[in-house]
């Protein structure tokens, strides 16, 4: 579905991503990494808001690394950017309409009311808010609108950049359940710092540090990795080995 090959990208001549390669298909392909690792740079390179320096990005075999963001969206790639980025002064419903327009532009026949009904089913909290200006919603609700806006574009692939960052822990839990639900029908590339809560819902995980993938594997493999446990899950550096030998 998505293939990233030897991708390098950066800003004003400085390299952030250094020869990244991975693939993302059905389910959730999760890229975890600390602040500044290059997660957003990766997302921007994939969805066309940043032109990579070298390497390839392919969707269904079509190279897109030289295409503008609008053209990549036309291929069915939808984005939930970092911090949602809604049109704050527009009503929620009008933000959704903008997403829907992407599907119309591709020549699809769109039943907007039916799409909104689906959105209300997925995010019941948004129902009473549809006519409110987007900026009046809570951070969690705005993140839901951003996801809904991407979904009404009828994408074939969804890219989400740190959707849980800054949200109340209760909302994080809720949102992760929704993302898991969406991923049943739509392949997702997800970036996150929240290792503990997002790794379990992933199909495949890549750990990004300083612009390089330093570890990749299944959720089980990632959660069993010593360094991940120490650095990202805050476990003690030296677990008491005595217990094991005493028991043996
Ligand atoms: N628009 C930009 N202009 C210049 N440097 C940037 C820009 N965006 C990000 N960077 C730099 O690129 C590196 C990776 O940032 P980013 O991709 O935002 O990481 P992450 O999303 O993992 O926190 C950081 O050193 C950051 O300062
Ligand atoms: Mg980021």
Q: Would you give an account of this structure?
A:
The chain is an alpha/beta fold and 248 residues long. The protein has two domains: 127 residues, P-loop containing nucleotide triphosphate hydrolases (Rossmann fold), CATH 3.40.50.300; 71 residues, no CATH class. 36% of the residues lie in helices and 24% in strands. The protein has ten helices and ten strands. The strands form two sheets. A six-stranded mixed beta sheet has the order 6-7-8-3-9-10, with helices on both faces. Strands 2-1-4-5 form a four-stranded antiparallel beta sheet, covered by helices on one side. α3 packs parallel to α5. The protein is globular, with a radius of gyration of 19 Å. The model has no long low-confidence stretch (mean pLDDT 93). The structure holds adenosine-5'-diphosphate (ADP) and magnesium ion (MG). The site of magnesium ion has 5 residues, from α1.
Quick structural gist:
The chain is α/β, with parallel strands linked by helices and 248 residues long. It has helices spanning 39-47, 69-74, 92-105, 112-122, 139-151, 169-182, 195-198, 219-224, 226-232, 242-247; strands at 2-11, 14-24, 28-32, 54-59, 62-63, 77-80, 157-161, 188-192, 204-209, 212-217.
